[in-house]
Write a structure and sequence with these properties.
five-stranded parallel β-sheet; about 45% helix; about 20% strand; Rossmann fold; alpha/beta; 2 domains; about 270 residues; 10 helices
Length: about 270
Amino acid sequence: MRVLIVDDNASMRTLLTTLLSAHSYEVVGALADGNAVMEAIDKLNPQIVCLDFQLPGRDGLDLLKAINASHPDIDVLFMTASEQPGIQEAAADAGATGFLRKPFGQKQVLDELRQVCDTRSRAALANLADADKGAPGQASKAGAVGDRKTAVIVDDNSSIRLLLKGVLSELGLNIVGQAANGEEAVRVAKAQQPTVLFLDVNMPGISGIEALPKILEASPKTAVVMVTGDTSRELVEQAAGLGARGYIVKPVRPAYVENFLKKLFAS
């Protein structure tokens, strides 16, 4: 896997470069600020970006959003020592596929990268199988939990939609629609009447929480599952009170999603 490292701390850049190179990752670049990151991505074509939050120039959260918008197939491992409230949730909602809080150990880095690579690999294979068959949602692992159940994915982040589509397709769900905001979600739910709808919480326009009752009114038999980086008790209780059947935590992890869906469909 080709990795670009972005961190303003020289010791951290050296540590990550040495560690990853010793474990079969190809480090294609190491940058000290955020100003040239997008140009470096276009030039170096990394598959993973290890991205620090607090950088000179453009900060990591701004860069994360830009990377996801222009290169949704690139995984971003977000790293920070910041204690800023909500930063992990913000990174997850912006599309980070991994998160590390500094200081961290070498094993933590390797374990998180392994999870990121496994998730993307499984999702990519499922999406490729869909494209080859010419039918959205044909699962490479048919019947694992889906058995032709239908799903709609709603998230304003294209990278998360792509990743979740691959994971759900691999688990046997037929993806019959996608939407990028709450208004679109209501229309797609009404048209498709899916078995399950995965609904992002934080979106422009009406939020997932605001869209939830409208979706259930449009498609009463649909199980709505919130997708969020925020698992606060207040949010969970609010969503459950409005009819959500549960939630999936960002960053998306296939094993977690599979276990959740097995319980959902068994209930």
